[in-house]
Design a protein that fits this description.
The complex is a heterotrimer of chains A (139), B (117) and C (91). By secondary structure, chain A is mainly α. Chain A is built from five helices and no strands. Chain B has one domain: Helix Hairpins. Classes of the chains: A mainly alpha (139), B mainly alpha (117), C mainly alpha (91).
Chain lengths: 139, 117, 91
């Protein structure tokens, strides 16, 4: 599909908007429909679109194996780490109200945003990994 | 009798979908078709939960001053996570099928069993 | 073989259809699923967590352990796919 100039140009234009929308869905998970799972899948699909159009080898230059493998685990690490931070400040595991960020509501807001970001990173990286590993088989 | 049928029509939809998926899982010999059947089966379970969460006259469970009644948020949460699990199981199953195809050269269940004997 | 599986499917469908007789109507506010845990989430979410989306607050705050396990499940699925399919570069 690399030869078709229309597909290439439209993909180059669309990918930033898809990624922006994915970030919007993750960040607005607490005030509207959305959240880490949905936004992560949208973010991953932008990379998958890039790989479908430009090929697996070119895609691996953008997202090397090491990067996607690391991002897989970093998301879970962020999630579990926020729970441990809450314990360090004297609360229970994943009790965001205890974080010293002014009001309790603001603290729980930030805590939820943090774990949504963690979930989003993991989901996006796993989608990319699954796609790369199954797409490579055709050769 | 007809009232019972019409008042519970959501259950009839999910029973139909679930039986389509169930039939594909137990009657087909092609492994990919079995996975498709499993996905239809899972979709039936999602629909069942979401239809239980619906309350007559309720809005989406997002705080809003003019809302009179909200839908039940709990099944939405359970299904949000169940959808992700379904994606994970499908991915692992497809990876296993790719390995089976490499080892046996076929994804027909009866041929694979023949080769094993 | 086909007739046996069709028979099994029809039996299961009959059992499920018999089960729906006791189920609540579609959209019934008095259904048991809507009476027990959900009203507390709907009433207390805003004052306890300060977040307007109830689904997110239940997902991330009240049932945070559940979501942590869920994230681990996706992570495990990704690792399994890598284990099953990744080959070393033959260069």
């Amino acid at each position: 599909m690399q030869d078709n100039i229309i597909v290439r140009t439209i993909t180059r234009i669309l990918i930033p908007f898809i990624q922006l929308y994915g970030l919007y869905v993750i960040m607005h998970g607490d005030s509207g429909p959305g959240g880490g799972f949905q936004g992560g899948v949208i973010l991953g699909s932008s990379i998958i679109l890039y790989v479908i159009v430009f090929g697996v080898d070119q895609g691996r230059k953008i997202i090397p194996e090491k990067l996607s493998d690391t991002l897989n685990s970093i998301g879970v690490l962020i999630y579990a780490g926020i729970g441990l931070i809450c314990m360090i400040f004297g609360g229970k595991y994943l009790e965001y109200n205890i974080l010293p960020l002014g009001s309790a509501h603001f603290a729980s807001h930030i805590g939820m945003l943090g774990i949504e970001i963690g979930v989003g990173i993991t989901v996006a990286a796993v989608m990319i990994t699954i796609f790369f590993e199954t797409a490579r088989q055709e050769r | 009798m007809i009232e019972i049928f019409l008042g519970k029509y959501n259950y009839w939809i999910y029973i139909t979908l679930m039986m389509i998926g169930f039939y594909a899982m137990i009657a087909k010999h092609n492994l990919i078709k079995k996975i498709i059947g499993m996905n239809i089966f899972q979709t039936a379970v999602f629909l069942f939960y979401i239809s239980i969460a619906k309350v007559k006259g309720g809005t989406a469970p997002i705080v809003w001053e003019e809302a009179i009644q909200y839908d039940n948020p709990l099944p939405h949460v359970l299904i949000l996570t169940a959808i992700v699990v379904s994606v994970s199981t499908t991915a692992v199953a497809l990876a296993l099928i790719i390995r089976i195809y490499k080892a046996y050269g076929s994804i027909e269940e009866d041929k694979i069993l023949e080769m094993n004997n | 073989m086909k007739s046996i599986s069709l028979f099994a499917v029809l039996i299961t469908a009959a059992v499920l259809a018999y089960g729906t007789i006791d189920m609540p109507d579609f959209g019934d506010p008095q259904a048991p699923a809507n009476l027990h845990v959900a009203p507390r989430y709907i009433e207390k979410t805003h004052e306890e967590t300060g977040v307007t989306n109830m689904v997110t607050s239940v997902l991330a705050s009240y049932r945070g352990y559940d979501t942590l396990g869920e994230t681990t499940v996706i992570f495990t699925a990704g690792i399994s796919v890598i284990l099953l399919l990744r080959r070393k570069r033959d260069d």
